[in-house]
Amino acid sequence: QVQLVESGGGLVQPGGSLRLSCAASGSSISIYGMAWYRQAPGSQRELVASISRFSRTQYADSVKGRFTISRDNAKNTVYLQMNSLKPEDTAAYYCCAASMYWGQGTQVTVSS
């Protein structure tokens, strides 16, 4: 069983940056593929970025070149660095481990 807690969300102006963190407990994340999803009001949850056990990364086309996912297995934490934020990035962001375990989410709002 893995417990995931996201943090780092907030209100930011367009063009700004945020770094989300996902702290895991209960098990080491080193054996899991990890991912960040987001869900905007009225929309389905969508995959934003993923990182494999071997740190291979993949990104949604909408965030390529702006977002970076990374992992620190020693800290049992996954990060999502978000740069050049746009209003359409506004959503609740969720961390996911092994496509099975989910955090409660952290809200990101991009607005002037």
What's this, in brief?
With 112 residues, this protein is an all-beta fold. The protein has strands spanning 3-7, 10-12, 18-25, 34-39, 46-51, 57-59, 67-72, 77-82, 91-97, 101-102, 106-110.
Structural features, described:
This protein has strands at residues 3-7, 10-12, 18-25, 34-39, 46-51, 57-59, 67-72, 77-82, 91-97, 101-102, 106-110. The mean pLDDT is 97. Strands 2, 4, 5, 6, 9, 10 and 11 form a seven-stranded mixed beta sheet that branches. The chain has a four-stranded antiparallel beta sheet with strand order 1-3-8-7, with no helix packed on it. It is mainly beta and 112 residues long.
Mean pLDDT: 97
Instruction: Please work out how many helical segments DSSP would assign.
Output: 0
Instruction: Report the β-strand fraction as a percent range.
Output: over 45%
Class from helix and strand fractions: mainly beta
Question: Main sheet?
Answer: 7 strands, mixed
Q: What Rg is obtained from the alpha carbons, in whole angstroms?
A: 13 Å
Overall geometric form: globular
- Write down the secondary-structure element order: EEEEEEEEEEE
Low-pLDDT runs of 5+ residues are none
Task: Provide the helix percentage.
Answer: under 10%
- Measure the end-to-end span: 40 Å
